[in-house]
């Protein structure tokens, strides 16, 4: 029952932006360096330290859920406390029912025999098939009989586990990457040959993290494929770029979920720019009568006149017109309809989806004109970009625009058509703000264009002489809200200095921030609820506040960002912005702002997320206001923000074969049409813990855990959040190793589907948001946390763990198959200084910057062909690759272009030498090395190892 | 028993306790309405927040009467709730107005469940107490 919108028959294709199709999965030939990989190679930078423990207080009394009830620990609500080091086995699943606990009692671990813990467990050992052994040897690249022999004794035990592991055969094809398998060698010590063979065959081999050095597959981590028993269902599911679940196989009970120790949740990017989207206009939108679910590909057609809802199981009547197929223009089979063929679809909503006539697109810009802000020169960039892009601003003939400037007073601009030039009106009474004139502060973008242009050309120079260094953001926002209240729309704020007067005045909390965690916790939380209340008022009036922070000093993002957080806005941050002194930041600002004003926008939107009976949405993450248990109010929606939801299992799902999530976003397009975009995700239900673990989506888990960690650090402090991160990893690894049969003391075992999770966790603990030292500025930290809550998953992962490609071998690198142009298919490598070779050139791809790092022994050929210099000695910094007419240069430029195309907007490129002053931009991101105050990845793993089991 | 100050405080406590029981029932209903989407969280918080301090005040008031009249056992009985109230108000979210409920966090299932459970626990404890006051008074 979403509120309600417009009816307009025109068809507008969704915003189209070239997206490179995901690279094809290829089977990598066995790594010739395999023998090197079999021993633990410890790079020099990663020397293990003896007292790693001290860096993380491993109290085990912490996690992201303030568990409903007693213990403030454990990953899941109602699950008791978490793994501690002192009493390893017994504390694994403290609150699980007895049947489950038996599987982790010490004796069962001692002899590696796990008693029947799954229903349907078949205890007869499966025969060792020589054929499978061969397969194993084949896929391994080389036979390794010697390694298997010393463990003959254990094989007898292992035989009992065969049936258990056979469950993992279902995992065939779910795994995005087979490459890691080839690199495996001797960590299989505890497994039988057959077991190993099967696992290798199906790609579900466990990985010893301490020995396995190459975790990243060359083409990056893909989300696991969702597999159903019925083949036809596999192809129609919602794209993983839009809708993802942490578990691609849903456990059927809450106990099973607790046993897997994984968080259950969905991440959704509902308004993503799509290249292909079926849009449907019909007089009645077919929905379930009881739960209001939209008809989707997973409904069951009882007969040609009725359908059964897949969320609530109600049988509904099918309207006559639904049997009409618009493509072939014939009546008959309802399964030919686009609604039933596509999991992502958009409806043009009829009039009953509107609470009021669809609003016009209204844009109001709030410009900080305090002297510090004017000095940065941002006004020129904003005005120039607006002038250039004015024709591309989305909106129909009703679209309106307005400007308010503020220093210690509020400056309004009367843009009446009759005036020769804009008329400035200054309101000095900031404690009780009022609108100086009723009309012409917001004017039509089409009719009053000339005077708007006039204002935009004047503005950059108008306040150059001003010496007023105070910014009255609060009153300006109040004025903006009053101005937009009758219509709704978008407020865009450019903030440069800390607002110190009027309502919403803030103080500098960074100054007295010492190393006290309590102070830090308070500083992460807003100091006033002024901005939150304002945001709530805005949200009810369909106004969103978007914030651009272009600050050089502290502006208290944590307080001000509440204005965007609860009104569905977005937040940008350009630290140390200066128009001329910081060209990289000003390019980024310009590109981001250009994208911002021209991208698709949805007004007065609401999003409802429905899920199958037995599941419920538990906590929401993102920028919005939660209006009821499953309804999010989004005054504006934009294509660059994502949302996360934690899901809990309330009832047993054992009666279902699959469950569905459906997100419906109802919005008014900039052309004044009311539209509904519906995404449906369907997932199979499984009944045993191995299947659950074989369906985990590690990137999605990381995305959700990062969101939960932000909440945790706001509620109980940064140190608790850091501990909770470690506890999640330990939980996840422990849960996996109890289902495996390897020797616990020799290895740190991870599922191939979770192999990157410890690495991501280690990186995020060293990121600006969660590092424990206070070297990072408070605003940067808060902004990172805000980003974790709203970024779409792919960008989120990239900001935690940037992509690194070696590009010096461009001549020998094969070309990507799926591109029209010549784009080399560079493999991804780890962010580790031991991977950086002296003769190499590396591209680091971060969400806001692309760095090309040139090492000192680079070949002359590369210098001449790509960098256009004689040799390394002559090379200095560049901000762009020279356009040279040779294949090497062309390929590398194509590659960089391709990386740029995958981002929402172009970012600046920095090319510098290894001994440049800028090198920290690159080196700081080699997160696997040991930092000044943080452990290396290898040390982190060793610390984990002492905590697992 | 003669009409002492202690008896007087029990009579007052009994009457005020009835009010508190009414408050707790109102509280339970309010959160149920939120759960079943009947009410908007902003409106609901606006109606709940002004009632928080009066409720805590009434409870504190008859406990002061117990303190004056030296009814130590009754005071002890109420001490946990008193301490809970003080702590609850101390750790409230950053707000400029009165009250403890924040419309942006109240729709979290955890917060909703916690508030509803709080309502039921208060209700049962207060009704037990009122029986006790009746017998004492």
Automatic annotation (TrEMBL), chain A:
Residues 358-597 form the Sec23/Sec24 trunk domain. Residues 46-62, 99-121, 131-141 have a biased composition (Polar residues). One of its GO terms (molecular function) is zinc ion binding. Residues 697-797 form the Sec23/Sec24 helical domain. Residues 285-321 form the Zinc finger Sec23/Sec24-type domain. It is found in: Golgi apparatus membrane. InterPro entries: Beta-sandwich_Sec23_24 (IPR012990), Sec23/24_helical_dom (IPR006900), Sec23/24_trunk_dom (IPR006896), SEC23_SEC24_subfamily (IPR050550), Znf_Sec23_Sec24 (IPR006895). Residues 142-167 have a biased composition (Low complexity). Residues 21-32 have a biased composition (Pro residues). One of its GO terms (biological process) is intracellular protein transport. Residues 602-686 form the Sec23/Sec24 beta-sandwich domain. GO terms for cellular component: COPII vesicle coat; endoplasmic reticulum exit site; Golgi membrane. Residues 1-68, 97-175 are annotated as: Disordered. Its main location: Golgi. Belongs to the SEC23/SEC24 family. SEC24 subfamily. This is Uncharacterized protein. It comes from Allacma fusca.
UniProtKB/TrEMBL annotation, chain B:
Keywords: Membrane, Transmembrane, Transmembrane helix. The keyword Lipid biosynthesis does not apply. It is found in: Membrane. It holds the Pfam family Cornichon. It comes from the Eukaryota. It is a multi-pass membrane protein. This is Uncharacterized protein. It comes from Allacma fusca. The lineage of its organism: Eukaryota, Metazoa, Ecdysozoa, Arthropoda, Hexapoda.
């Amino acid at each position: 029952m979403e509120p309600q919108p417009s009816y307009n028959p025109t068809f507008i294709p969704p915003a189209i932006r070239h997206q490179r199709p995901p690279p094809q999965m290829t089977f990598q030939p066995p790594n010739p360096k395999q023998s090197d990989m079999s021993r633990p190679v410890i790079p020099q930078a990663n020397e293990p330290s003896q007292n790693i423990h001290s860096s993380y207080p491993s109290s085990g009394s912490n996690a992201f859920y303030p568990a409903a009830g007693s213990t403030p620990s454990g990953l899941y609500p109602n699950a008791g406390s978490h793994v501690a080091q002192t009493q390893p086995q017994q504390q694994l699943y403290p609150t699980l029912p007895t049947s489950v606990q038996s599987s982790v009692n010490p004796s069962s671990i001692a002899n590696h025999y796990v008693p029947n813990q799954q229903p349907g467990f078949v205890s007869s050992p499966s025969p060792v098939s020589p054929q499978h052994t061969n397969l194993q040897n084949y896929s391994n690249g080389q036979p390794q009989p010697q390694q298997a022999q010393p463990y003959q004794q254990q094989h007898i035990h292992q035989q009992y586990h065969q049936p258990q592991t056979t469950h993992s055969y279902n995992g065939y094809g779910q795994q995005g990457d087979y490459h890691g398998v080839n690199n495996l060698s001797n960590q299989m010590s505890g497994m039988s040959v057959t077991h190993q063979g099967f696992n290798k065959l199906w790609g579900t081999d466990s990985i010893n993290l301490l020995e396995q050095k190459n975790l990243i597959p060359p083409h990056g981590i893909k989300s696991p494929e969702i597999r159903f028993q019925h083949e036809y269902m596999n192809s129609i599911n919602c794209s993983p770029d839009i809708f993802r679940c942490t578990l691609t196989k849903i456990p059927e009970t809450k106990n099973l979920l607790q046993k897997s120790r994984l968080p259950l949740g969905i991440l959704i990017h509902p308004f993503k720019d799509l290249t292909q989207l079926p849009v449907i206009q019909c007089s009645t939108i077919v929905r379930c009568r009881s739960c209001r679910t939209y008809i989707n590909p997973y409904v069951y057609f009882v007969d040609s006149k009725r359908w059964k809802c897949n969320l609530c199981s109600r049988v509904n009547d099918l309207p006559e017109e639904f049997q009409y197929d618009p493509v072939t223009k014939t009546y008959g089979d309802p399964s030919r309809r686009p609604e039933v063929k596509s999991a992502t679809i958009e409806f043009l909503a009829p009039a009953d989806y509107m609470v009021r006539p669809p609003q016009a697109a209204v844009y109001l810009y709030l410009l900080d004109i305090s002297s510090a802000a004017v000095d940065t020169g941002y006004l020129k960039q904003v005005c120039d970009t607006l002038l250039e892009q004015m024709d591309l601003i989305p909106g129909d003939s009703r679209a309106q625009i307005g400007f308010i400037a503020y220093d210690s007073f509020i400056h309004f601009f009367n843009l009446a058509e009759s005036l020769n030039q804009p008329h400035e009106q200054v309101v000095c009474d900031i404690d009780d703000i009022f609108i100086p004139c009723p009309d012409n502060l917001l004017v039509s973008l089409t009719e009053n264009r000339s005077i708007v242009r006039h204002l935009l050309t004047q503005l950059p120079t108008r306040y150059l002489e001003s010496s007023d260094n105070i910014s009255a953001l609060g009153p300006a926002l109040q004025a903006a809200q009053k101005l937009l209240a009758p219509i709704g729309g978008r407020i865009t704020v450019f903030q440069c200095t800390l607002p110190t007067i009027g309502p919403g005045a803030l103080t500098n909390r960074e100054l007295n921030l010492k190393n006290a965690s309590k102070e830090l916790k308070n500083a992460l939380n807003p100091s006033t609820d002024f901005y939150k209340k304002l945001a709530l008022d805005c949200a009810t009036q369909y106004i969103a506040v978007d914030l651009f922070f272009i600050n050089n000093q502290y502006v208290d993002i944590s307080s001000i960002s509440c204005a965007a957080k609860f009104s569905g806005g977005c937040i940008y941050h350009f630290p140390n912005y200066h128009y001329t002194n910081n060209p990289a930041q000003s390019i980024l600002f310009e590109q981001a702002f250009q994208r911002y004003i021209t991208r698709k926008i949805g007004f007065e939107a609401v999003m409802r997320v429905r899920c199958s009976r037995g599941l419920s949405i538990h906590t929401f993450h993102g920028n919005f206001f939660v209006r009821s248990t499953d309804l999010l109010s989004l005054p504006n929606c934009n294509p660059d923000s994502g949302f996360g939801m934690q899901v809990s299992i309330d009832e047993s799902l054992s009666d279902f074969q699959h469950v569905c999530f459906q997100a419906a976003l109802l919005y008014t397009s900039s052309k004044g049409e009311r539209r509904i975009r519906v995404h449906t995700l369907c997932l199979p239900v499984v009944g045993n813990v191995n299947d659950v673990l074989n369906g985990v989506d590690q990137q999605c888990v990381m995305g959700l855990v990062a969101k939960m960690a932000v909440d945790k650090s706001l509620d109980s402090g940064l140190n608790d959040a850091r501990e909770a991160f470690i506890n999640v990893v330990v939980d996840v690894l422990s849960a996996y190793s109890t289902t495996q049969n390897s020797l616990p003391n020799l290895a740190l075992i991870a599922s191939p589907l979770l192999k990157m999770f410890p690495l991501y966790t280690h990186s995020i603990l060293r990121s600006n948001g969660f590092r424990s030292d206070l070297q990072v500025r408070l605003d940067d930290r808060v902004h990172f946390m805000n980003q974790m809550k709203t970024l779409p998953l792919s960008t989120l992962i990239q900001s935690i763990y940037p992509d690194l490609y070696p590009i010096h071998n461009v001549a020998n690198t094969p070309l990507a198959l799926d591109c029209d142009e010549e784009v080399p298919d560079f493999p991804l490598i780890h962010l580790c200084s031991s991977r950086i070779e002296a003769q190499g050139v590396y591209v680091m791809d971060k969400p806001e910057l692309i760095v090309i790092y040139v090492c000192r022994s680079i070949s002359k050929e590369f210098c001449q062909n790509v960098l256009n210099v004689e040799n390394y000695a002559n090379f200095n910094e560049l901000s762009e690759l020279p356009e040279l007419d040779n294949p090497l240069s062309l390929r590398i430029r194509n590659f960089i272009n391709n990386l740029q195309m995958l981002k929402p907007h172009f970012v600046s490129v920095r090319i510098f030498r290894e001994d440049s002053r800028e090198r920290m931009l690159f080196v700081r991101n080699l997160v696997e090395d040991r930092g000044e105050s943080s452990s290396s990845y290898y040390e982190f793993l060793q610390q984990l190892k002492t905590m697992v089991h | 028993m003669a009409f002492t100050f202690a008896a007087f405080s029990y009579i007052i406590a009994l009457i005020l306790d009835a009010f508190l029981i009414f408050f707790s029932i109102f509280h339970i209903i309010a959160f149920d309405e939120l759960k079943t989407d009947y009410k908007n969280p902003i409106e609901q918080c606006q109606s709940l927040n002004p009632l928080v301090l009066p409720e805590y005040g009434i409870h504190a008031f008859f406990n002061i009467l117990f303190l004056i009249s030296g009814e130590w056992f009754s005071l002890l009985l109420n001490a946990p709730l008193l301490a809970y109230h003080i702590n609850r108000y101390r750790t409230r979210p950053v707000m400029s107005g009165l009250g403890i409920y924040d419309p942006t966090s109240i729709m979290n299932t955890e917060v909703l469940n916690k508030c509803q459970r709080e309502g039921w626990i208060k209700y049962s404890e207060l009704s037990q107490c009122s029986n006790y006051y009746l017998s004492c008074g």
